């Protein structure tokens, strides 16, 4: 008999002006000890499904029909009180964002002990010691010390481990993990998922893993459930889904999943003439706030002796985890920030210290596409105003010429001309990023810096935007500096890849070489953390 | 991916509006918005009434506000005098309607002073930053340390009595609040990615200020201005109640309540009616401010 | 320790600056002598010699910077000058007026916190949407009513109609009830508004979901998890709230014809008694600074993050 059986589940949300169906008739089973991954893009209803199972839908959500049974016992329609004896005790939840999922004003140990106290698994005296044990089991070093600390004193990875300790405290038969690692760096994510696997193997808990990342699902799950627009489009054993997907949507997801699809890396671009951009020995220090009782200001070296060149028509990628200095390097190259030392060249000219008019002229040569297309467009502007802003800034052309240029640009980023009068809120994430790209192209720059341009987008949309960037490069001979944390994405777009850690550029080599034969230990760790490899082997 | 995977947004399956309901015209949307909020409609009507009576008081109360009819002293509310009459036999309704003009003038001056001075200080501090910000905000901190009413009283002690002085005092006392909000908004907008994006495409700073920062920062500040309008009515009428406003017999909302005070035991309406008018106006203003603040934007 | 010193330094700075601001407003904006003349002359003409004597008596014959420094020096020694009207030291006038004001202010603050927190916690806890709507509407109603009018209406109802409580005066605890309630109403509403907002925010935070997923009951989630976080923003308005409470006594003491600091202020403003008005303003700033110092000391107990990063 299955541990969890969901039948014909329907959930909708009350929104202004009516209701929205989030889950439309889902049937799902999880057997004892099994790992089932629910995969889907944003809005597919996968998180709603997980919330409905544990009975913690947002206030405006409601289950319309269906059944959720744990061990044959119906959970839907139970009183809040009855559900409380299930939550934490028989179903454990590993939440999404460890940064905000722990109570900031309570000690870690207290928060773990609370589960034990609520379900009367320990009394006031034994709970603290048991909590320390659980933290240890979740893989937290110095658990006794950590138990006395507050969440803000722990790193993201440690916080997620504390949350895992909470989830496994009562040895629940079922664990639900809702995007457990998407807020973490890849290497940390891999350690956490590995540890979760080990713990689960020890206790025999089943795991319902909700993720947007088909690679993660492929690595970890016995079975994969693919959701789209509130429905399950396909489900089956992992190997079967990966090798013989039957539904077109699954095939599309597979093709787009960066870690799974095997793509040939681009060959290096032949170098001829002056590079379009070059940085030499760049260093950037940020002052740290003064430590208590000290008048000396410490500095954080964000970028440490970085040098590279970008050839015409080349895509150079800088990869690294958060805090590696990759974004700062990009801003230094564009002169949006000033280096502490080192030099920046654009097309052979030293631009390290240009100011005023000359600085503004740089904007015609080098442009920037931001990570978050939801934040980089002024909400009050229409698409037309966004795209023509650079033209207005430099007084290029008459009003009619600018309008014509805007039409041409939206066409180039494959958006319908009707979009010109829309406002950013009316566009999807992928459409917004296309608008941002069109703005960057308005002044026909030679170099475009893309700072995590696809990391806020769903995978299928990611692939489309990456293809667009590639086409534009082929057509116009653009050069890109591509900043990303995602090696799988980088592999698709870059001619050469530089790996950054702690402000230093560890190695910079042609893409294929780097992936096949990494020199540096850290590069190997990064490569090992790409989700989806275990399945491919 | 953290932005997108915030549970609140990830859990919210609202389809992008482009694929949702057909776009409605502005007027239809306004109609639907108002029909669902009868309280808001009443509030708007009250405000319109108050504004009209400030300019054309004779429209609603054709009588003379200072005309005393000794035979009709202290009549309770009823037909003919539906707010009653005062101790000299003057019609309270007529006096309230004619008092609107002075009270509203003072309120408008107060809000204008606070909005202009506070807004400029906040904009300067937020956009220039550095030591300018540091100095301006310390001054604002000090102003915030003195309760507004006391600050206004100190100004009145220096400037002397009268409606205009009361208005200026109330306005100056609210400058700090505006400066803080305007600065916070300016800094928020200045720090957004789209402002940096504008800079990165070569837009000059003053163009950025005019086209990005001001329009996006104006919303919350105007909401505050509407809210301040309500607070200023209360502050102006309090000071007028304390006797610092226009000298009698000119009617003002606060002084009308004060006049009725001595007859509270026998003729409650002399106090109650002007006070009720103040309360209704402030409630209406606050209701509109709330609608502007969130409901209108949310209800798309 | 450094944290405390910093806060003390800032408190001193605020006091000095409020002294300067009030000096600028009261001594520079208008001519205090004109006020003095209006007071002393009683309609009869005044000679230049008499005028100079008056100026000299109050130290107004000195150049402005000298006056400022001398007065500031005196203020640092605790001498706030002499009232233009009754010739008494300002410090003594304030000290004498203070006790009855402290009575209603303390009672008002207690009532306000009880009202405010009670309404906010019930409104966010109750599962009845209807009750929540009504409770959340109360604060915005209360802040829209003119305080002086509320006081008069309470008097009309409880003193004149029902005859339960005295209408005026300061004798006995019964006379305290109506003024304290009047004072507490807008303040309590403010506390309720802040707390409703921060509670509602806290209740949608992911850590609340984590707690609920542990199987923690609603009351414990409410008090142990949400309130601990929501109290922090509510605490920051306490300085502001206390200051406004003090300012509220100006109106309340007038309405209920009670003696106290509020009444003294009203009369000082009416008489344009510049030193006394400045003394009251400084006293209010002192209260604000002291309350904020207390809040700063409580802060690290409520929010472990504060001890780490010293707020500027």
TrEMBL record, chain B:
Record bears the keyword Zinc-finger:
no
Q: Which residues form the signal peptide?
A: none
Q: In this protein, which residues make up the domain named ABC transmembrane type-1? A: 104-289
KW Transmembrane helix (keyword) present: yes
Pfam families, per this entry?
BPD_transp_1
Q: Which CDD domains match?
A: TM_PBP2
- Which parts of the chain span the membrane according to its record? 39-60, 108-132, 139-160, 166-182, 221-246, 266-285
Record's keyword terms, sorted: Cell membrane, Membrane, Transmembrane, Transmembrane helix, Transport
Low complexity bias locations: 7-27
Q: Where in the cell is it found?
A: Cell membrane
Top-rank taxon, per record:
Bacteria
For this protein, the record's InterPro entries field holds:
BP-dependent_transpt_permease, MetI-like, MetI-like_sf
Q: How does it sit in the membrane?
A: Multi-pass membrane protein
- Provide the residue span(s) of the region labelled Disordered: 1-27
The UniProt family comment states: Belongs to the binding-protein-dependent transport system permease family.
Q: What is this protein called?
A: ABC transporter permease
Supply the source organism for this entry: Actinomycetospora aurantiaca
